[in-house]
Amino acid sequence: MKIYTRTGDGGQTAVIGGRVDKDDARVEAYGTVDELNSFIGVAISGLDRGKYGDLADDLLYIQHELFDCGADLASLKQQEGRPYKVNADMTSRLEQWIDRYDAETPDITRFILPGGTQASSALHVCRTVCRRAERHVVTLAKSQEINNEVRKYLNRLSDFLFTAARLANFRDGVEDVAYERSGEVFKNRS
């Protein structure tokens, strides 16, 4: 099998149910999800398995789910007999993981600056790319049919990635840096 097909040389690409221009809102949405998946791969590659094995496993699981997001976004409409792949249970699982990792980290009341350790910084990059993917999905949903569970999943995933970035700093003994001009915006967990 050849990796190149030449079918996209004219500026269009195949999606499930037809062909669209490569700059179509649908392609922007699933393309940004693909970009996020690649950045998560970078983040995983920098994690010490001894210290972050649980997080690395969760991130790998998320990579598979991001392929599901991409497949749903690449569908012009829900195909008869082919249910969407992304569902509410996936978002609920992210919430459970967020709660578990959040319980391990110290409370924050202010916005924090992205950064700290290499692992935390990589996860913050993933978070911002996730937010961009979510914005593209919102734009797409204004004009075309989508699986709304993808939007919910990406929204919760950005929260997970924020929590994971804080966890990385905490496990490495590095304090998050509070944005010094921030008011108190988060409530304590207690």
TrEMBL record:
EC number(s) stated in the UniProt entry for this protein: 2.5.1.17
Domain Cobalamin adenosyltransferase-like: 3-167
GO molecular function: ATP binding; corrinoid adenosyltransferase activity
Keyword Nucleotide-binding: yes
Pathway the protein acts in: Cofactor biosynthesis; adenosylcobalamin biosynthesis; adenosylcobalamin from cob(II)yrinate a,c-diamide: step 2/7
Catalytic activity: 2 cob(II)alamin + reduced [electron-transfer flavoprotein] + 2 ATP = 2 adenosylcob(III)alamin + 2 triphosphate + oxidized [electron-transfer flavoprotein] + 3 H(+); 2 cob(II)yrinate a,c diamide + reduced [electron-transfer flavoprotein] + 2 ATP = 2 adenosylcob(III)yrinate a,c-diamide + 2 triphosphate + oxidized [electron-transfer flavoprotein] + 3 H(+)
Keyword Nucleotide-binding attributed: yes
NCBIfam families: PduO_Nterm (TIGR00636)
Quaternary structure and interacting proteins, as annotated: Homotrimer.
Family, per entry: Belongs to the Cob(I)alamin adenosyltransferase family.
Protein name: Corrinoid adenosyltransferase
Organism: Paenibacillus thalictri
Upper classification of the organism: Bacteria, Bacillati, Bacillota, Bacilli, Bacillales
